[in-house]
């Protein structure tokens, strides 16, 4: 009975949906995390009576047909790149982006990855790095014994050098944007890689046209809405249970049919 296979595809789809929801909830406190949703499409149909077909020699047309669907399939887990709320931390090297753009990070192999997580630190050479010790681009080194570290909304990094009473700009943190942010590939550690779907990276400056601004002493929180995720989880659970009941009903019908031939 085809209903068994059709309902099985529904159970598999809802299981994946719950997996996506679980990952969103698990990352509700992850800095810069962007939530995902599961997207589905119906499978190919078996056309037993095709709508619009001629039903008589006089040219009568069928107004409706008989189409049996094959179930559902997952087509993607698109990521919502909406802005998360900013949380003040007071740390000089905690940076948050408001608007478009990603921080650019240089990996040990020389390639670049991108993040919305502005939890930065200084390494043993005074360079600004992310939590894994990879360089924030363009590379900036904080002079030894300097004070008064500030990062303005344009990303300019300034410090007060020893023996001076005025601040000096020592570098500028850039931002990178993409035509299709949802096409970025998540690789873990709050990092993304560009792909052919995202389009090539477009490096620029904060507060320039098309780019967001940088806020010092703050971090962007995950854009996960816990109430919405819980509601989606309940809906997925109920859909899973209903598909399981379809399989149970179809199995009972097959048992009844089998008993007729005993």
Automatic annotation (TrEMBL):
Assigned keywords, A-Z: Bacterial flagellum, Cell projection, Cilium, Flagellum
Domain Flagellar hook protein FlgE/F/G-like D1: 96-159
Subcellular location: Bacterial flagellum basal body
Membrane-spanning intervals of the chain: none
InterPro entries reported in the protein's UniProt record: Flag_bb_rod_N, Flagellar_FlgE/F/G, Flg_bb/hook_C_dom, FlgE/F/G-like, FlgG_G_neg, LlgE_F_G-like_D1
UniProt-listed SUPFAM superfamilies: Flagellar hook protein flgE (SSF117143)
Name listed for the protein in its UniProt record: Flagellar basal-body rod protein FlgG
Naturally occurring in which organism (per UniProt): Bradyrhizobium canariense
């Amino acid at each position: 009975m085809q209903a068994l296979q059709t309902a099985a595809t529904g159970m598999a789809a809802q299981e994946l949906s719950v997996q996506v929801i679980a990952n969103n909830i698990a990352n509700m406190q992850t800095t810069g995390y962007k939530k995902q949703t599961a997207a589905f499409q119906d499978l190919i149909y078996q056309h037993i009576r095709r709508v619009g077909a001629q039903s008589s020699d006089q040219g009568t047309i069928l107004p409706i047909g008989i189409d049996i669907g094959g179930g559902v399939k997952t087509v993607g887990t698109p990521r919502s790149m909406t802005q998360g709320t900013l949380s003040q931390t007071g740390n000089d090297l905690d940076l948050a982006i408001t608007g478009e753009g990603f921080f650019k990070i240089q990996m040990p192999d020389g390639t670049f990855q991108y993040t919305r997580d502005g939890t930065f630190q200084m390494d043993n050479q005074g360079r600004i790095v992310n939590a894994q010790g990879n360089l924030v681009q363009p590379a900036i080194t904080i002079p030894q014994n300097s004070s008064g570290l500030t990062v303005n909304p344009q990303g300019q990094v300034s410090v007060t050098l020893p023996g001076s009473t005025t601040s000096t700009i020592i570098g500028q943190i850039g931002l990178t944007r993409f035509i299709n942010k949802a096409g970025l590939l998540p690789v873990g550690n709050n990092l993304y890689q560009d792909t052919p779907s995202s389009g090539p990276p477009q490096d620029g400056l904060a507060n320039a046209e098309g780019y967001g601004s940088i806020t010092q002493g703050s971090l962007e929180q995950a854009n996960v809405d816990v109430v919405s995720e819980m509601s989606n989880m309940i809906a997925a659970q109920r859909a899973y249970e209903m598909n399981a009941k379809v399989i149970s009903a179809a199995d009972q019908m097959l048992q009844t049919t089998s008993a007729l031939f005993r």
